[in-house]
Amino acid sequence: MLTINNLSKRFGKVVAVNGMSLRVGRGETIVLMGPSGCGKSTTIRMINRLIEPDAGRIIFAGHDIISLGDEALRHTRKRIGFVFQQFNLIGRLTALENVMLGLVMGGMVKEAAYEKALSAMEKVGLVKFRDQKPSELSGGQQQRVGIARALAFEPELMLWDEPTASLDPMLVREVLVVMEELAKYRASTMLVVTHELPFALHVADRIVLMDKGQVVEEGIPAKVFVKPASDIGQRYKELIEYQMNTSALTLAGQRIA
Ligand SMILES: Nc1ncnc2c1ncn2[C@@H]1O[C@H](COP(=O)(O)OP(=O)(O)OP(=O)(O)O)[C@@H](O)[C@H]1O
Ligand SMILES: [Mg+2]
User: By residue range, what is the domain housing residue 182?
Assistant: First the structure.
């Protein structure tokens, strides 16, 4: 459903993405990982042309996104949901109104937008908070409103750029649970940039590792994190082992104490 071919982008002298290629099948959940600055955000922002690529092809549902005109691009963007690290909710609107806004601006009649927004709020478990303003919600709840806002369009493809990165660690779980549910349900294809290793291990159909603007390894989590072929993969493997050991040690210590 999505094929990225030889995608490249530079910002002045900085090569952000350097011949990136990737195929994503319908209903798949792909977790994209790699060191800071390796080009993850630039890549997923190019998919809906929030950033204009310099070269390459992005074929989504049979169309080359890069050659779309303004009108066709607007139409295609409605089929692609985007959840960012920053929630960007509108403070004077209620949670439900935030979810409805894009639908109404896209020309949907209010009653239909209300129904769609309500159903999206249900999927993220926030119906009873629908009349609250963002300032009356926790960070985790605000991000779930952000997710509902994307889901309301019933997107075929969901792009996630570190959706839990700006959350208090205690609130990360509730957002990951919602994401895991969506992945399980497979209503849309998901391309997720995240540093959450447990999520990557348990939820991803495939892990794609990037370094210096390119894919350096991809495969199922059990392969990439257990028998990595790349240096980056090896680093993640060691990180997982370290985290497992430290949590086992901590638990053992608590038992003794
Ligand atoms: N608008 C911009 N102008 C100039 N340089 C940029 C811009 N956006 C990104 N870059 C550079 O491009 C490279 C890739 O950035 P990108 O944000 O895609 O990395 P990332 O993998 O998402 O990193 P992180 O994990 O820190 O979010 C970096 O060197 C970054 O500094
Ligand atoms: Mg980024």
Answer: 2-79+155-256
* Residue 39 belongs to domain with CATH number: 3.40.50.300
- Does residue 81 surpass a pLDDT of 80? yes
Indicate if the pLDDT at residue 218 is higher than 60.
yes
**Ligand 1 pocket test, candidate residues 41, 161, 191, most atoms within 8 A of CB:** 41
Q: Is residue 136 part of a domain?
A: no
Q: For ligand 1, is residue 41 a contact (CB within 6 Å)? A: yes
- Rounded to whole angstroms, how far apart are CA atoms 42 and 10? 10
pLDDT of residue 84: 92
Question: Is 84 within a domain?
Answer: no
Domain count, the chain: 1
- The residue whose CA has the least distance to atom 28 of ligand 1 is 37
Nearest alpha carbon, ligand 1 atom 3: 11
Residues sharing a CB contact under 8 Å with residue 195, sequence separation 6 or more, in sequence order:
33, 162, 165
Rg of the chain (C-alpha set): 19
